[in-house]
Sequence to fold (1081 residues):
Amino acid sequence: MKRNSLMMLVVAALLLAAYGDRAPAEASPVGDLNSPAVDVSAAQGEAVTIQFLTIDDEDMLLATEQMIAAFQASDPQYANVSIEVQSVPFEQLFPTIETAVAAGAELDVFLADGPDIKHYAYNEAIIPLAEYYTEEELAEWVPQSVEEGSFNGTFYAPAIMQSCSLMFYNKDLTDAAGLEPPQTVQGWTMDEAWDAWQKTTVDDSGDGVPDTWGLRWGQGTYQGDYEHGIMRRSAGVKGSPSYMGIGEDGITFQGYLDTPEAIASFEDYRDWHQGDRAVTPQEPIDNIFFSKGAAFYVSPDNAVGTIDRLYPDGDFNYGVTGIPYYADGAQVCHTGSWHFGVSPQSQNQEISVAVAKFFAGPEGSKIWYDAVRQLPARIELLNTLPEYNEYPQQLFNEGLQTIGVPRIQTPGYTEYQQYFGELAQDIAQGEGVEVEALVHETAIQMEQALAKYEGWQEE
Amino acid sequence: MATVTSTAPTIQPAVRARGIFSWRNRQLMIAFLFIVPALINFTVFRYIPIASSIRASLYEYSLLRGLRDFIGLDHYARMLNDWVFWDSLKVTALFVIYKVPIQIVLSLALAVLLQRETVGAGVVRSAVLTPMVTSVIVASIIWAMMYHSQLGLIQSMLGAVGIPRQAFLSDASRALPAITVMMIWKDLGFSLIILLAGLKAIPHTYYEAALVDGANAWEAFRRVTIPLLMPVLMFVVVTQAVFSFQVFVPVYQMTQGGPLDSTKVLVYYIYQQGFRFQDMGYASALSVVALIILIIVSYGLMRWLRPQT
Amino acid sequence: MAVADQTQHRGAAVLPRAGLESDTAKMIRRGGIAVLRAVLFAVISLIFLIPFIWMIFGSLRRETEIFQYLFPLSLHTFYPIEWTLEHYRDILGLSEAGNRAGLNFGRNLLNSFIVSTGVVVFSLLFNTMGAYFFARLKFPKKNWLLAFVLVTLFVPFEVTMIPLYIVVRYLNLQNSYWAMIVPWFASPFVIFALIQYFRDIPYELDEAALLDGASYLHILRTVIVPLAIPGLVTVSLLEFQFIWNLFYWPLIAVQDKDIQVLQVVISSQTTQEQTFWGRTFAGSALASVPVILIFLALQRYYVRGVAATGIKG
Fold:
């Protein structure tokens, strides 16, 4: 027996050695970056490797592959540029970027979430790209994308796509309730919508739990700012503190998050989730709209792709209406999506910039759109795609341009988002929660967490 | 009870030479060689990171910006007034206090019940071990669905025995107990298997001796099983207390620390500070405090549960 | 082997109960206990298996069905209406969709197997030596060394992860199997556990061997290890599943998809806007089967054999 276990040990060690020896060599070509690889072919440009960090999403990854090929073919000097793609789950993207920066790991270009751009720029985790773009080139994007990609008026990160949340509805369920949602961006006011949600919250079995719910507000199960932060801003008229959502200084929340109308909107938010007028499950249920358990669904247009995937035979009858808004406030959808950031750690900054610029340029954006199928950020592409000029996708195009506002612009967005998520969860779930006090307290906490950014606009 | 003594064998060298190359010193050096590989590994892969965290705790440090100003013990002073930290410490302590005793008692009972090789015991054993081989991420997702206040499987079961629907994860007073139950479910197999192996190692002669003394089953359990199992039991208690103190993933997956901070455990708060608030300096200081607390608690537990000689 | 042999051949030690009973009463009582025990066993098994069963069936049904029949409780809460193997084909990369998504779970299973086995093998070597040192050898200030080892157990990984990554990069191990194996070579948990099991072995045995002039290594191999096999196997199993279920470290340490382990791939099935529940469940089911099999195959090491039954009742 002793001999057998020794044998096993040796065999396992050998196996391991065989695999292990090979792996590092083939896996870390970046380690060889500094070795003389320049002499490959002067005419074809330097042989360099660019590390590109992105998220796990098969459509995006397919698009990336094609964009890389197109980039290499776009100019002979890039023919020898190889681009290594690393993808991580969406949730892990931000920590992975932090880790790569902290560890000084190879990182050249990365996918960056719009509202985080200011955070990265403030922390010098991306380089400014203003010098690589003319005014005319910047004007090729919708203005929200330029604002989201800038920090203190300097352009940092080009956008690859845009977004605006509207309200999807399950036509079978609305028909059953005798509802006909208007197929316009204008859509319903909050009162009208709530009425419709109540009518579609149906408890046929009488067990106290609706068989179908009226509403599912937002994607996933995280009550983040992207969708759940819309109501408080919609509560105020254009230009009012509620609508602005944050002070001019980008760090003040008292007087913006906790205005009377914003607090009223948070109270509505509570009542969606609990009490007599509840229209959405108190604890979120993933996929509830897609499994036909909710009649209305507030989401960007990527839901179209999900429906196509889950119901390849088309047996899901849906429509799109505007996002509900407060009649005495303003209609709002949050904009913003992915950008490309270039790391200051890049050993090949010029080429990295070229990669980012190509990816977000006319050709890259088209390839991306063909695979990912979400609202483009480039105006020309938006105008030339036939589907964005007819219902339902036309509504998203129109929504972006008419009611779309970027999320609050502050280098402390990540901190804000943490607190906001906790606030929304507490309001939705806390029994008998004191909304006003809680919102006010959260505003103070947010200010404390963001105090370190004081004076960021002068930097 | 020779088996539970912790004294090393007395070595009686034939020659007691003096000097570096004496027999005794050579024996010591050879003994030391046994621990050298582990020590090197710990130094490189554990202590360098620990030292670097301790250093970071004395600086303004963020992952994106790196080390900035040296601020001495400011981060530690900040903790004194940080009520979120104190709350998280309380939540963590509660989690450990709820979870560890229940888990240990249950796994001990199951270990005694299931130690024999029968078909029934085999089935139960396998069932109890199953959660252990499921990743905690997936287990958390499934349990969140089971706990769901309206659709959860648990609601259906409660309904079947006439109990009205209860909110678990969205109720500030129940969320932590709910996560505790899930984690006991998840970790029970872990402690069970260690205790089973410990039971297996107890020689039967001891039970027979107790039998001769006229002991009944309970007395035998108390007088033979417990004392002989003590080293293993102590190990299970200490490691489970440490692992439970470091709980993170289920909180991250199921409640994000809410509602109303009722599940915001220390490591979740550390993660938030370090990765979301760009304050790895403070997060490091919090970890150093966590380290100190765990050293004290583990030392106390080991003293308390020290095998009697 | 002397002690082991002594303990093995003894039969069941049944402790006598107080009082005398007639044979029928005894039989009725025994039967009642047997039924009670069967019910208890069934309930315990169900509690532990229900989430797992739900997951397995979830992996075998259409994705839209998974959450559709949760409530009220009915047969279809668990039992699929439309059976499908699509999620398994997807995650194994056997279907068009799986191929398109670049999935190859078989490869990831192999990677996880290599990494977990690698860790266990090295761990058995170094930690056994370490535990032997702590449990049986004489050394000045040994308790301080033990504290040095145990303290490493106490630091939350979330904080030391990044410095650890820097160390691994410095050693140029990143993005390789070694990155996932080498940092876990030595484990405070395993050493701590093995110390407890080694302490159970009578000290007379090593003393006798030492007097015969045997070396420490010889004693470890011929006396300690054979007698501590149950403990060694148990701890190895625990370590195997621990490494098998690691997610965060491989995600950071390894970028190459070809050597990535399975938990990372399972997590990658949650994207920004949706979770591929079917694939997540199928992946989890596939990931747990090999470990369950290993646990079952080795259970004779952590369970008493029939001949060695302990106290009854």
